[in-house]
Amino acid sequence: MFETIKRKPKIDASDTSGMVLEDIKGDIEIRDVYFRYPARPDVQIFSGFSLYVPSGTTAALVGQSGSGKSTVISLLERFYDPNSGEVLIDSVNLKKLQLKGIRQKIGLVSQEPILFLTSVRENIAYGKENATDAEIRTAIELANAAKFIDKLPKGLDTMVGEHGTQLSGGQKQRIAIARAILKNPRILLLDEATSALDIESEHIVQDALDNVMANRTTVVVAHRLTTIRKTDIIAVAHQGKIIEHGETI
């Protein structure tokens, strides 16, 4: 236990050193990245992976399971560092940026949203420190969640239950979207955000995502065609590389 407490992580979210980009454009570039997960050093995930997403555009990452799509999200959030190559935002290597500062500019919506045993309001407010009621209201409107939240017994103060058991899958996902959008991120990462939903819930959540993707740099990891119809760029990942890349018409 003491060894764990004393351990100095290579990527420290509490480290305040590094550059702070006050007004980022949101250009994303992954340049010739090679990567293996530390827990699986014998498995090569990326071998010369490169991707460029210009500011304000939406890029869809598609490919079979195990092709490294979700690993892109992990590298952009800097949960891991590449073994070689660079991950850049606005042409600055992610390693040179203050981690807390850049994560405040990035919103993440994953396949399985994590909700805490507290109220709807506090689950959303987790996305931004000292968020105001007006900011929370704007976020739930954008996330297409205001109608169902207002119908809950106590509205925003309704308890969601352990892991959000009092809510449906679509409702939980819209709360996760509201949480991600609360800080008005310049970059939005969507990791198969609708893949666990039924068709009806998917349409509602996809409408919410279409609302929040506007005027942001967005990376969408997708399996379903419905999630990539409105993207600007589609990139196909296969065996650790981008093998096809093109703009949508």
Description:
- It is a single chain.
- The chain has 249 residues and is an alpha/beta fold.
- The protein has a domain at 55-77 and 105-247: P-loop containing nucleotide triphosphate hydrolases (Rossmann fold, 3-Layer(aba) Sandwich).
- The chain has helices at residues 2-6, 69-76, 99-103, 120-125, 133-142, 146-151, 169-181, 199-213, and strands spanning 28-35, 46-53, 58-62, 84-89, 92-93, 106-109, 187-191, 217-221, 233-238, 241-247.
- The strands form 2 sheets. The protein has a 6-stranded mixed beta sheet with strand order 6-7-8-3-9-10. A 4-stranded antiparallel beta sheet has the order 2-1-4-5, with no helix packed on it.
- It is globular and about 50 Å long.
- One of its GO terms (cellular component) is plasma membrane.
- Residues 28-249 form the ABC transporter domain.
- One of its GO terms (molecular function) is ATPase-coupled transmembrane transporter activity.
- It is found in: Cell membrane.
Quick summary:
It is found in: Cell membrane. By secondary structure, this protein is α/β, with parallel strands linked by helices.
Question: What labels describe this entry?
Answer:
single chain; about 250 residues; alpha/beta; Rossmann fold; six-stranded mixed beta sheet; four-stranded antiparallel beta sheet; globular
Shape: globular
Biggest β-sheet description: 6 strands, mixed
Please, how many helices? 8
Helical residues, percent: 25-40%
Instruction: Please name the CATH topology of the domain at 55-77 and 105-247.
Output: Rossmann fold
Give the strand order, joined by hyphens, for the main sheet.
6-7-8-3-9-10
| SSE run | HEEEHEEHEHHHHEHEEE
Helix-strand category? alpha/beta
Query: What top-tier CATH class of the domain at 55-77 and 105-247 fits best?
Result: Alpha Beta
Question: CATH superfamily membership of the domain at 55-77 and 105-247, which one?
Answer: P-loop containing nucleotide triphosphate hydrolases
Q: Strand content of the residues, in percent?
A: 15-25%
Whole-Å distance between the termini? 55 Å
| Rg on CA atoms, Å | 18 Å
Oligomer: single chain
Mean pLDDT, nearest integer?
88
- Architecture (CATH level 2) name of the domain at 55-77 and 105-247: 3-Layer(aba) Sandwich
Give me the count of strands. 10
**Low-pLDDT stretches:** none
